[in-house]
Amino acid sequence: MTSSSSEYARIVDLPAHAGRSVRVRGWVTHVRSSGKVAFVVIRDGSGILQVVLVKSTVSPESWERFGTLTQETSVEIEGEVRLDKRAPGGVELGATSLEVEGPSPGDYPIQPKEHGIDFLLDHRHLWLRSERQRAILRVRAEIEQAIRDFFYERDFTLVDTPILTAAIGERSGLFATEYFDEGNAYLAQTGQLYGEAAAAALGKIYCFGPTFRAEKSKTRRHLTEFWMCEPEVAFNDSNDNMKLQEEFISFIVARVLERKQKELAELERDVSKLETVKAPFPRIDYNDAVKILQSKGSEVKWGDDLGAEDESLLVEGADRPVFIFNYPKEAKAFYMKENPADPRTVLCDDCLAPEGYGEIIGGSQREDDYDRLLERIKEEKLPLDAYGWYLDLRKYGTFVHSGFGLGLERTVAWICGLPHIREASPFPRLMNRLRP
Ligand code: NSS
Q1: Whole-number Cα distances in Å, 366 to 193, 197, 208
Q2: Which of 221, 329, 350, 435 has minimal Cβ neighbours within 10 Å of its Cβ?
Q3: pLDDT of residue 3
Q4: Of all protein residues, whose CA lies closest to atom 21 belonging to ligand 1?
Q5: pLDDT in tens, 11-30
Q6: Domains in the chain, CATH or no CATH each
Q7: What's the gap in Å between 427 CA and the centre of ligand 1?
Q8: Is 46 exposed, middle or buried (0-12, 13-18, 19+ CB in 10 A)?
Q9: Which protein residues are within 6 Å of ligand 1, measured from CB?
C-alpha cells in the first residue's frame, strides 16, 4: 500500500495545485463512462472530486481497474489538476493512473433511495459517509469547539468530572454497575455536583463530557448517552446565570453561521431562523407561563413540570430562545435554591429553543443553606452518606453560586434543523439501540 501522506494532496487543497500533477486518495461515490472517457467521483473527507480518465491517455491496467470500481472502493489516483468552474470544488483531475487500495463488493447497503430509519441506524457505521451525515458531524464539531473557545476566552477552567459516581444528580433513570466492595456505582447523569466543588476552588469552571440517563422515553429529544456542557460560577445568582446562557447560545449560533454555511446549506437549514438568535432572550416567569399555556388551551396546572407540547406553545412565534424561570420546587431537582420571594418555587430556568426544539438548557442557582439542603436531600430520600461531601461545600464557606447544563445533541439538532436527536450523535444510544 501507500507511503507517507505528504506525497498526497487533500481534495480541498487542490485549487492551489492547478496545472500540477498530484496524487489523491479517497472512496468512490459514482462512476460513469462513455466508452472512451470515464468519470469517477471520489470523496476523501475534505471534499468531492471529479476525476476524468481518457482511455487513450492512461495505461491499459488503469483503464481495466476503472471497470472494477464500485461505490466505496478506495482508490489512489494520480493526475493533473485542472481548474473547472462547473466541477464540484472548482477543479477536476485529469487522471494519468488509477490504483485500487481496497475493493468494495457491489452490494453497498446505502443507496440513493429511501431507506427506513431502522435500516440506516443498523448501518450507522456506513451511513456516516453520506453527505448529510458528514455535514451534521462537522456542525457538531464546530459547536464543541465554540463551547470550548467561549469558556477559554472568558477564563473558565475546564474541570473533568467523574463518570463513575455514588451520588445522584437528577431524578431521571440511573445506570448502575457493581463497584467492588463499594456497592453500586452510577454512570454520571451530570457533572454538576463536582463542578460546584471545583467552583469553590477555581471560581469559574466548566465540565464537558458524556452523561447517562436510563430514560425509558422514546422521544425525538432523548438519548440514553448524551454530552452536556456544565459551567458553574461562584457568586453568580440566577439572573447572572441566565445572562451567561444567552451570551453562550448567541456565541455558538454566530460561530456556526460564520464557519459552517456550506454544511447548513447541505442540510437545507433556513439560516434566517438562526440569524435572529441574539441576546437578550425573553424571560417568562413560571406563573405567567402557566397562564399563557392555559389561555392557549393546555391542561397544565400550577405545580407541573412543562412537557414538550407546552414548551412548543411557549416559544410559538419567538425568533430566539426563551427562558422560563422559577419553577415549583416539586417539579425540579433537590439542589436548587429556594426562592426567597416565593418559597414554593426555586431559582432556576429552562432555556427553550425556538421552532419546537424545546429545552436545550436547564440551569439554577444552587441551595447554599446547609440546613435547607439537608432537608431537601432527606425529602427526596437520597442516601445521605453519598452527599456528605456535597454538604461540606455549604459548611466550609458557603457561597452564592449558579450554573447550567447545555445538552449538546439537542443543540446540534436545533441548529442543524434535524427532526430527531438521533442524527445529532455519531453513534446514538437509545433505549433499543446499543449497536453499532
Ligand atoms: O437535567 S437537566 O435539565 N439539568 C442538569 O442535568 C443539571 N445538572 C445541569 C446543571 O445545572 N449543571 O439537563 C440539562 C440539559 C437539558 O436541558 C437537555 O438539553 C439535556 O441536558 N438533556 C438531554 N439530552 C438528550 N437526552 C436526554 N435524555 C437528556 N436529558 C437532558
Answers
A1: 10, 12, 19
A2: 435
A3: 46
A4: 407
A5: 999 999 999 999 999 999 99
A6: 7-102 (2.40.50.140), 122-424 (3.30.930.10)
A7: 19
A8: middle
A9: 169-170, 190, 192, 213, 215, 222-223, 226, 228, 230, 359-364, 403-405, 407, 409-410
